[in-house]
Amino acid sequence: SSGKVAGFARLIEQIKQATADLPLAEAIDHVIEASGLADYYRADKEGADRLENLNELINAAALFAEESGSSAALGSDNTPEAAASGEATQPELDRFLAHAALEAGEHQAGAGHDALQLMTVHAAKGLEFHAVFITGLEEGLFPHEQSANEESGLEEERRLMYVAITRARRRLYLSHAQSRMLHGQTRYSLPSRFLDELPKQVLLDLNRRAEPAYPSGGYSAPAAPRSPQTGNDTGYKVGQSVTHAKFGTGIIIDFEGRGADARVQVKFREVGTKWLALAYAKLAPA
User: What is the β-pairing status of strands 185-188 and 241-244?
Assistant: First the structure.
C-alpha cells in the first residue's frame, strides 16, 4: 500500500516537472498520456467515447489559450492581458479550470423548458424530434477513423447514421467542416461518404455555390481561396480541395519546395495521404 502511494507521488512529481514549460493544451495531453488514462480507455471496449471527451478537453484548452492570447506555460500567466486584469500571478491552468467550471452549467435549461438538446447518436436511440442537426459528417469522424480497422466497423457506423437520420420527424440538417480543431491541432477533412449515399433528390444544399469545393453534389464544403499561401509559390494553399485523375478528390494538408521542386501533401478519401510533385501530378482545383 505504501509502495503504491509512493509510486503515485513520484508520478505526480514527474508529470509536474515534464509539464512545467509546456503550453496548456500540450500539458493536458501529456498528463492524459503519462497518467495511463488514455491507455486505459484504449484497452476498454467501451472507452471510445471517453477518449473523445478527453480529446475535446485538449481542444478546449487550446482554444482557451488562443482566445486569451497566451502561450505561457502552466506555472504562470504574465501576458499583458492578464496583467491588466490582475491575473498575472494566477496560473493559466487554474484560470482554464475556473472557466470550464463556469461554462459547464451556465446555459443549462430547466426541466420542461423549450431548449436545444445536445446528445450522442447512441443516446438518441428511441427518441424523435421535429428538427435534428447532425454535425461532424467528415471522413475520420463519422465514420470514425478506427471503423476501417474493425470487422464490420464501417457497417456499424452506417447503422448509427441511419439511427441519427431517422430521429427527425420534419427537418434534418446535415453539416460538415472543412477544418476543425482535433487533439489541439487544426485538421483538414473530406466530407463523409455517408453524404454521397443519400438520394440527391431529397436534399437541399444550403451551401450551394457556382463552383462547389466537393464535386459530388449534396453538401459541399466552402470553396477555398485560390490565392497561394504565404511563402508558397505553388498556386495552392493548405485546406484547398483538389482532384487527381487517379486518386480522386482530396484536401491539401501541407506543401514543401518551390518552383519545379514543389510538392504538396494531399489527403484523399480512398487512398489516404500522399505527397505529389506538382510538376507531374496534374492536380486541379475541385
Answer: unpaired
Domain CATH number, residue 97 = 1.10.486.10
Distance set, CA 249 to CA 139, 227, 241 (Å) = 12, 19, 7
Beta strands 284-285; 185-188: pairing state: unpaired
Q: In whole angstroms, what is the distance from residue 145 CA to residue 55 CA?
A: 14
Q: pLDDT tens for residues 102-161?
A: 666 556 666 677 778 888 898 888 899 999 999 999 888 898 888 877 778 889 999 999
pLDDT in tens, 122-133: 888 889 999 999
Among candidate residues 108, 133, 159, the one where a domain is terminated? 108
**184 domain residue, yes or no:** yes
List phi, psi (to 5°) of 234: -80, -20
Spatial contact of 199 and 275, defined as CB atoms under 8 Å apart = no
DSSP per-residue codes, 185-224: EEEE-PBPHHHHTS-GGG---TT--SS-SSTTSSS-PPPP
- The 8-class DSSP code of residue 264 comes to E
Residues 57 and 19 in one domain: yes
Q: Which of 18, 54, 15 is nearest to 37 (CA)?
A: 54
Same domain, 119 and 186: yes
Whether residue 206 lies inside any domain: the answer is yes
What are the grid coordinates assigned to 110, written together? 430547466
Let me know: does 168 contact 132? Beta carbons within 8 Å: yes
Asked if 4 and 76 sit in the same domain, the reply is: yes
